[in-house]
Structure formats: C-alpha cells, structure tokens
Design brief:
By secondary structure, the chain is α/β, with parallel strands linked by helices. It has 2 domains: 183 residues, Rossmann fold, CATH 3.40.50.450; 110 residues, Phosphofructokinase domain (Rossmann fold, 3-Layer(aba) Sandwich). The protein has 11 helices and 11 strands. Helix 4 links the parallel strand 4 and strand 5. The longest helix is centred in the middle third of the chain and has 22 residues. The protein starts with a strand and ends with a helix. Bound molecules: 6-O-phosphono-beta-D-fructofuranose.
Length: 322
C-alpha cells in the first residue's frame, strides 16, 4: 500500500526556518497527491491528539516567519515507553503512513522510538546549537549566527566609544559551535567554549596585553555551557580593572526571519524528507554533507552523540583574536 497521508511536527527548542521547512514538506507532499496533517506542540500533540489538516493556505506567508506556527515543546512523556506507545497508536489511528520530525537531539530520539514501533519517520535536524552529528549544518544555525553578529556589531560601536570590554554570552548548553562561529564572524578577541578548558588568568593577561598595546575594547564570546557570562565579566573586572559589561543574548538568538541560507536549507530538507518517505526510506535523518543531502540511520545519529567542536574553527578564532 502506497503512502496517502503524512504528518509533520516541530519539536524541542524552536528555531528560525522551522516554518519554511513545514511549508516545504506540505507543498512537496501536496504536489505528490498526499494529504498532510500538522501535529501541534511537538510530541505533546501526538500524545494528546492535537492535529490539524494542512493545505497550501495553511503555509502561505510562512516562509519568512521565525518560530513555528505548529508550535513546539520539550515533551518528557516521549522519553518513556507509555508515551511513545500512545504517540505511535494515535498516529496509526489517524491513518498516517509517514512522519516528518523537525527538531534537535531529543526530537530525533522520539523519532527513533516511533520508527521502532513501525512508523516510517524521517528527521530534519533543527537546532541553533549545531550539535547534531551527520550534518554540516542544522536548520536555524545560520539565522542565529546572523542575529549574534548583528548584536556584536552594535556592541562594538558602544564598546569602542568607552574603552570597554564586553562579555557576550551565546546559547549552547553543551556545544560551543555558535560561540566559535560567531567569534570568527564578529571579530571577538576571546572565545570560551564548553569543549575547550580555559584559564581565566590567561584570558585576563591576554586582554591586559591588548589594552597595553592601545587596543582598548574587546569582545569575549562565551558559550552558555562554558561559564556564567556575568561571573566571567566580574572576574575580568576584578583582575585587571577594566570597565566590563555583559550581554546575555538568550532566546533573541532563536527568533527572527530566517536567513536565505536557512530558507534554502529548509526547502531542501522539507522536499527531501517527502521524497525519502515516498522512496520507502524510514528511520533516517537528512543531513547536509559536502553540499549534498545525505540520509543517516537515526540509530547512528543517536549513538554518535553530540557533534564534536570543529578544531579548525577553534584555532581560527584563536589566531584572529590576538
Ligand atoms: O537547544 C537549543 C537551546 O536554544 C540551547 O542553546 C539552550 O541552552 C536551550 O535550548 C534553551 O532551552 P529553553 O528554550 O527550554 O530555555
């Protein structure tokens, strides 16, 4: 029996480009004569039966909007057997023969659980952290980076007007990709990541030397998981006496209109997911590899854990931070 109806959901932390990906899934599916059902609030909607039919009208004017109109959630029940079972049963009762899950690591774990219960699932990696393995870029990363560099460009104007150091804290609980990429793109002097141990005394003497050379303002880019931005700013101020201010970028990074890169990536992932389901693929995640799309079994993605930090990026940020 061929596929007649598919469902799509967004799960975990939202990111920009999710709406564009839903749109691509819906349009690609409709073009193939399939029906599409949207699941509201991620896996919560699967467990509580919150569905809505999606047609071209549902996704019109969505391409450029940040967030996700289906809404998203982190769903604890989906980590447990009963929740997973109920979600699979509800999907089957709805007559769905394929599911597209757009989200991060936890969302892909849920996708694997549903695959093991017989539901064909294709995952689309979406998380500003860029911590998902087997894809060079996840959806939302590029937009978040652009948000960060816009903020840092603004900070540099005021930092240079006052001879100040600014500690900028990016998101990334366990992963420093955003911080290191933003550091390179915005010209930060120091980059602190959860993956790379650092000595605050060395950071301070580096800043001291720069100030002694007459370079009187600095940006210290700190990934959320590498330490508390406020505390690091106080340590710098106490050690070398510079006026130091803090900018915790927080959820600002996740919103806004998606960049051209994220819109195009969303289009490729969304259409790719529908094509994969129609080709009989199941239990796999789409990824961007060497410019092309690649499918990787979800087991492999989950087993691999977090994507390691790119050492070349790290050394670039250090070389350029002198
Ligand atoms: O995983 C994405 C992310 O934005 C992390 O960078 C951050 O630590 C976390 O989500 C914040 O989660 P919440 O939106 O639940 O506060």
């Amino acid at each position: 029996m061929g596929i007649k109806r598919i469902a799509v959901l967004t799960s975990g932390g939202d990111c920009s480009g999710m709406n564009a990906a839903i749109r691509a899934v819906v349009r690609a599916a409709l073009a193939e004569g399939l029906e599409v059902v949207g699941v509201q609030k991620g896996y919560h909607g699967l467990i509580d039966n919150h569905f809505q039919p999606l047609d071209t009208r549902s996704v019109s004017n969505m391409l450029q909007r940040g967030g996700t109109f289906l809404q998203s959630a982190r769903c604890r029940e989906m980590y447990e057997e009963p929740g997973q079972q109920l979600a699979a049963e509800n999907l089957a009762a709805l007559g769905v023969q394929g599911l597209v899950v757009i989200g991060g690591d936890g969302s892909l774990r849920g996708a694997l659980a549903l695959t093991r219960r017989g539901m064909p699932v294709i995952g689309i990696p979406a998380s500003i952290d860029n911590d998902i393995p087997f894809t060079d870029m996840s959806l939302g990363v590029d937009t978040a980076l652009n948000n960060i560099i816009y903020a840092v460009d603004c900070l540099k104007d005021t930092a240079s007007s006052h001879d100040r150091a600014f500690v900028v804290e990016t998101m990334g609980r366990n992963c420093g990709y955003l911080a290191v990429a933003a550091a390179i793109a915005s010209g930060a002097e120091v980059t602190l990541l959860p993956e790379a141990p650092y000595d605050i005394a060395e950071v301070c003497s580096h800043l001291r030397r720069r100030f002694d050379e007459g370079r009187s303002n600095s940006i210290i880019m700190v990934a959320e998981g590498a330490g508390n931005g406020q505390k690091i700013a106080e340590q710098i101020k106490d050690a070398i006496g510079f006026e130091t201010r803090v900018m915790i970028l927080g959820h600002y990074q996740r919103g806004g209109s998606p960049s051209a890169f994220d819109r195009i990536l969303a289009a490729r992932f969304g259409v790719g997911a529908v094509e994969a389901l129609l080709a009989g693929e199941r239990g796999k995640m789409l990824g961007l590899a060497a410019g092309g799309l690649k499918l990787t079994p979800l087991e492999q993605v989950i087993e691999a854990g977090k994507r390691p930090i790119d050492q070349i990026m790290l050394s670039l940020s250090q070389v350029l931070g002198i």
